[in-house]
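Workshop exercise sheet. Pairs work together: one partner reads the sequence aloud, the other fills in the structure field after running the prediction. Swap roles for the next sheet.
Pair: D.N. / O.F.
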Amino acid sequence: MSARDLPKPSRPAATTATVEQVDTSYLEGLLGYNARRAALAVIEVFMVRMAPFGLRPVDFSVLSMITHNPGITSRQLCTALGILPPNLVAMVNTLEKRELIARKPHPRDGRAVGLHLTASGKKLMREAESMAVGLEADVASRLSASEAKTLIRLLQKVYL
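Structure field:
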């Protein structure tokens, strides 16, 4: 009989750890983790409520900026929203094809083009911004008005 034919010694089975209660305390102490979890909760509601308007969060942000800043340029939008120019070009083209925005010559800069809402864009944004007010109230329902203001102010301190 060779060594190859001998039975291999059995090893004790490895002990497998089991988790009865998940410990998330480390992650819950991280700003990024909490900001991301809060953002995901808000975005989930946003996507459902904005689906009838065909708006993603970034589309809503772009249209809202144009709503409140008629004639804003693409460069200004990129700076204000932190969007890369190539990404904005495709978005503006899509919003223009949907007849929600129109490009018009800038009154002081012959090279620039201002972005404006069309009549259908204005109608859509009146309804979408009204919906946004309601969804913000719903997702912040566990916060007092003062807490919500403080949270917004604190979050802005992180990214502004």
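Discussion prompt: The chain has a mean pLDDT of 91. What would you look at next?
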